[in-house]
């Protein structure tokens, strides 16, 4: 992880850590904080706790997003302090989920923009002048447009990949495929490294092909406190506790000092929480296989 | 309020489930009169049958046993923009007389007094769902004459109707609150008081709305939640009071 972040995440870069509630790579976010990256443009549909931590740690210059809350809990208070009080200062560029998905879709397809039927009658385009309109050349209908998003690096957490980065994900898929294809570089972080024969035995489950992947990192429990379907549940207690931690800058600092700066790597983070396995490990729900024969 | 909202859903309908109380109301409807309700979540789960109350709209229990799990590009482009969603179910911090919803900021956008989460999928749900239901506790703060920011479009905004804006869906048809139910006027889309709860007067509602609320002549009474609905909500669906705080 240390090498992958050092090599592919630089000060000032546009960085995506995707995963909608599911498979959010906290391990990578924490390593970015440890390496002291600055002036990042962070893009995520739902900033979630990980970007709240990166904002609090002073890594971000700008946030590009569509829903900035603590899912199922409440607010992201570091984000709110930055936007409401300017501590630390943070530029924002705001869309809806569809708008962000469309930006990644355009970026992945190497188109300059993506049209969508959205935003009419809302104040969102007034808040974000990058949301514009185009007239359909066939029907004359006025459609909203959003510009392509092509990040410098996208980091995707997954259940498994082979050494070449052929990456398989199941459960919620979010916008990871589009974000990865849109990106100049891709880091895949996995619960489990598998032989290529495992991937080839079930190719429909591959979301991201190795040909677009620059680095594969093996980091079990790397998505904690978010979850990995089939591996571990969301640590909802931690999401609840972030409500109080994030309200107090001093408490955020204590948290980061202990769980991020105070450890060398993910193994150190996990060693501080030996009860995770017994509390959150998933019970198996195995699906029947299918025949790929012909 | 949650039980009343759940009754608005018909068995077999395809509903796009928003975060918070809509999530609970949809799961109550599925457990009572609408077992065939098709729950679609923006996270990508289609036909979800959660065995526990989802703690968020991206909960792993939405995946296990669902009919389909797909990427968010498909959810927004094929299901929502593709016109497949019959009911959109939304909450909001501020709701105005035309059912415009604000979940973005209280105060000025550039210098907000309170920064709220933003749209998520709400703007496009409000645009595309064939009809929209809104659920919110009633207060003057939550029901101003005009919202500070239009995140999700209602029946009329910036001087134009939804039809004039070219929006495909019919817009918000009802606002379900903890004191009464508002319904959109078929004439101009303005929300009118259509029914109050048995222990409430119409003043209990009109005094908590930031505009002169029109009251329908044949003002109805909301049927209170049944013992079974309350039991399901309190003992089965949300015993930890994740969503229920007096609703």
By DSSP, the count of extended strands of chain B is 16
Output the structural class of chain B.
alpha/beta
β content of chain A, as a range?
Answer: 15-25%
- Architecture of chain B, CATH level 2? 3-Layer(aba) Sandwich
Report on the biggest sheet of chain A. 9 strands, mixed
The percent range for helix content of chain A is 25-40%
Q: What order do the helices and strands of chain B follow?
A: HEHEEEHEEEEEHEEEHEEEHEH
Task: Return the CATH topology of the domain at 2-38 and 151-273 in chain A.
Answer: Glutaconate Coenzyme A-transferase
SS field, number of helical segments of chain B: 7
Gyration radius from CA atoms of chain B, angstroms? 17 Å
Enumerate the strands of the largest sheet of chain B in spatial order, edge to edge or round the barrel.
Answer: 2-1-5-10-13-14-15-16
What integer is the average pLDDT of chain B?
95
At the fourth level of CATH, the homologous superfamily of chain B is Glutaconate Coenzyme A-transferase
Molecular shape of chain A:
globular
Overall domain count of chain B:
1
| Quaternary class | heterodimer
- Main beta-sheet strand count, sense and barrel state of chain B: 8 strands, mixed
Residue fraction in strands of chain B: 15-25%
Total strands of chain A: 14
Helix content of chain B: 10-25%
């Amino acid at each position: 992880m240390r090498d992958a972040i050092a090599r592919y995440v630089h000060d000032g870069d546009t960085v995506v850590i995707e995963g909608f509630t599911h498979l959010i790579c906290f391990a990578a976010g924490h390593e970015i904080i440890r390496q002291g990256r600055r002036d990042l443009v962070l893009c995520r549909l739902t900033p979630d706790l990980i970007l709240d931590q990166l904002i609090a740690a002073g890594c971000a210059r700008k946030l590009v997003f569509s829903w900035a809350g603590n899912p199922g809990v409440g607010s992201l208070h570091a984000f709110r302090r930055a936007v409401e009080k300017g501590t630390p200062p943070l530029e924002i560029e705001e869309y809806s989920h569809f708008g962000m998905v469309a930006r990644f879709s355009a970026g992945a397809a190497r188109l300059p923009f993506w049209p969508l039927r959205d935003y009419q009658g809302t104040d969102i385009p007034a808040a974000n002048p990058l949301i514009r309109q185009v007239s359909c050349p066939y029907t004359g209908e006025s459609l909203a447009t959003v510009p392509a998003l092509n990040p410098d690096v996208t980091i995707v957490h997954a259940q498994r990949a082979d050494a070449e980065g052929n990456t398989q994900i199941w459960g919620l898929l979010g916008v990871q495929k589009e974000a990865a294809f849109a990106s100049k570089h891709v880091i895949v972080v996995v619960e489990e490294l598998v032989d290529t024969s495992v991937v080839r035995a079930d190719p429909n489950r591959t979301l991201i092909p190795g040909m677009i992947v620059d680095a594969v990192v093996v980091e079990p429990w790397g998505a904690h406190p978010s979850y990995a379907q089939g591996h571990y549940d969301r640590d909802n207690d931690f999401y609840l506790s972030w409500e109080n931690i994030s309200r107090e800058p001093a408490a955020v600092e204590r948290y980061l000092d202990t769980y991020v700066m105070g450890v060398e790597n993910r193994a150190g983070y996990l060693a501080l929480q030996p009860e995770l396995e017994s509390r959150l490990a998933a019970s198996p729900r195995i699906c029947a296989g299918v025949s790929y024969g012909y | 309020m949650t039980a009343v909202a759940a009754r608005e859903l018909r068995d077999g309908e395809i509903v796009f489930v928003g975060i918070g109380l809509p999530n609970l109301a949809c799961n109550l409807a599925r457990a009572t009169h609408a077992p065939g309700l098709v729950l679609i979540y923006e996270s990508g789960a289609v036909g979800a049958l959660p065995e526990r109350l989802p703690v968020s709209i991206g909960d792993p229990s939405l995946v296990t046993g669902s009919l389909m799990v797909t990427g968010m590009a498909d959810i927004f482009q094929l299901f929502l923009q593709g016109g497949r969603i019959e009911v959109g179910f939304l909450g909001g911090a501020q709701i105005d007389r035309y059912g415009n919803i604000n979940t973005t900021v209280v105060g000025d956008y550039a210098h907000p007094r309170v920064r709220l989460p933003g749209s998520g999928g709400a703007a496009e749900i409000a645009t595309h769902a064939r009809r929209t239901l809104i659920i919110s506790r009633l207060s003057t703060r939550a029901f101003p004459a005009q919202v500070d920011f239009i995140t999700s479009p209602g029946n009329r905004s910036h001087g134009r109707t939804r039809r004039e804006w070219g929006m495909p869906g019919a817009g918000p048809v009802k606002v379900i609150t903890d004191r009464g139910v508002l319904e959109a006027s078929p004439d101009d889309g303005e929300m009118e008081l259509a029914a109050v709860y048995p222990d409430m007067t119409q003043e209990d509602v009109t005094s908590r709305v930031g505009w002169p609320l029109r009251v329908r002549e044949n003002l109805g009474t909301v049927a209170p939640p049944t013992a079974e609905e309350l039991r399901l909500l309190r003992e089965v669906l949300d015993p930890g009071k994740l969503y229920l705080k007096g609703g």
